[in-house]
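Help needed: design a sequence for this.
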């Protein structure tokens, strides 16, 4: 159904926006065929590789495909708005309204410009974003404690070694006490990403670099990838916790597996297991890739949950749709009972829809304040 919907959007753009243009029939046919192929690139990747999450084609091709796909989405939205306005005018005037070529030219220019800009914004190394969380019961020893949250790096043919090196350099330059990565580090097999992942081994923080799996790790062999992350010096939390200590005080850092584990026959997220044995009075910071189960975490006494997964919705306005699939959580800070949830827009995003318009990527430093 997803592929049919995309095809319908594409055909709508072709019929209503492209075909009326005063250009040669051959040019319009070439453009139409190219748009149809681009609209089905997820299906093509799925047929040729077995999934749609790691097309191993040249980076320039994937950049072009993303620009084309975003163009289709934006052009369809703009054309639909134009058609609705035309219908309303026709109803008011009680006669058919002839639409000039100017609106179509504007739609094409705007859609192409915005899609090119949006893809370029998705591909950049993110700017620093500072967030302060005031936490009740936080020991004074942790007042001013700083951690860097990375999430949804999606190392792939779009986000390659050079991008990873620049991101790691920027993260290390913050000088935070702790670095956490809340899932979806990769898209692709270990062999496919062998040149792109090693820079993550250069991440450094006094209290370590801690990682949990996201849904994409399960698509490419979670056990192998988690072992690879350990080999790079990162420490893994899968339904486990660790204690971060400062001058006789401690806080609990817990991490759970992803909800995608169960269909793969692996252990799903188990917060009770993750917290078993944790000092009962400790402030608990939970790493959970997906934010949708935040209420459950709040009910179990978690103080702070850090998540990703949503990419912030990617396009301003589209975030409302993404929120519907994540219990309303899509970007930024939320108060869930007595717990604070922070949903990171993502350090990068999935190669299959790499665009950011009004929803910037984040290199996020979170500072804890005791109250």
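Sure. Designed sequence:
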């Amino acid at each position: 159904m997803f592929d049919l919907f995309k095809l319908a959007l594409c055909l709508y753009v072709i019929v209503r926006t492209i075909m009326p243009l005063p250009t040669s029939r051959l040019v319009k046919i070439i453009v139409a065929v190219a748009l149809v192929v681009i609209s089905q690139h997820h299906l093509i990747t799925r047929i040729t590789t077995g999934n749609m999450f790691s097309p191993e084609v040249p980076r320039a091709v994937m950049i072009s495909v993303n620009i084309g796909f975003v163009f289709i989405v934006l052009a369809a939205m703009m054309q639909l708005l134009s058609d609705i306005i035309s219908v309303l005018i026709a109803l008011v005037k009680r006669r058919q309204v002839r639409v000039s070529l100017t609106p179509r030219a504007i739609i094409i220019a705007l859609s192409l410009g915005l899609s090119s800009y949006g893809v370029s914004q998705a591909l950049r190394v993110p700017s620093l974003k500072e967030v302060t969380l005031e936490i009740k019961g936080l020991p004074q020893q942790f007042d001013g404690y700083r951690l860097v949250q990375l999430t949804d790096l999606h190392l792939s043919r779009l986000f390659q070694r050079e991008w990873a090196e620049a991101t790691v350099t920027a993260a290390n330059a913050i000088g935070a006490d702790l670095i956490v990565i809340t899932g979806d580090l990769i898209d692709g097999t270990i062999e496919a990403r062998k040149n792109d992942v090693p820079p993550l081994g250069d991440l450094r923080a006094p209290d370590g670099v801690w990682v949990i799996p996201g849904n994409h790790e399960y698509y490419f062999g979670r056990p192998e990838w988690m072992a690879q992350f350990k080999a790079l010096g990162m420490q893994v939390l899968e339904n486990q916790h660790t204690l971060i200590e400062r001058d006789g005080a401690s806080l609990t850092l817990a991490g759970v597996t992803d909800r995608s584990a169960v269909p793969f026959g692996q252990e799903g997220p188990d917060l009770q297991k993750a917290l078993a044995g944790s000092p009962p009075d400790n402030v608990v910071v939970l790493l959970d890739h997906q934010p949708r189960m935040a209420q459950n975490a709040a009910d179990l006494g978690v103080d702070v949950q850090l998540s990703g997964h949503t990419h912030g919705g990617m396009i301003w306005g589209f975030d409302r749709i993404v929120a519907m699939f994540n219990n309303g959580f899509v970007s930024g800070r939320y108060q869930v009972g007595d717990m604070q949830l922070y949903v990171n827009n993502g350090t990068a995003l999935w190669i299959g829809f790499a665009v950011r318009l009004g929803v910037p990527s984040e290199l996020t430093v979170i500072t804890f304040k005791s109250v």
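The chain has a mean pLDDT of 95.
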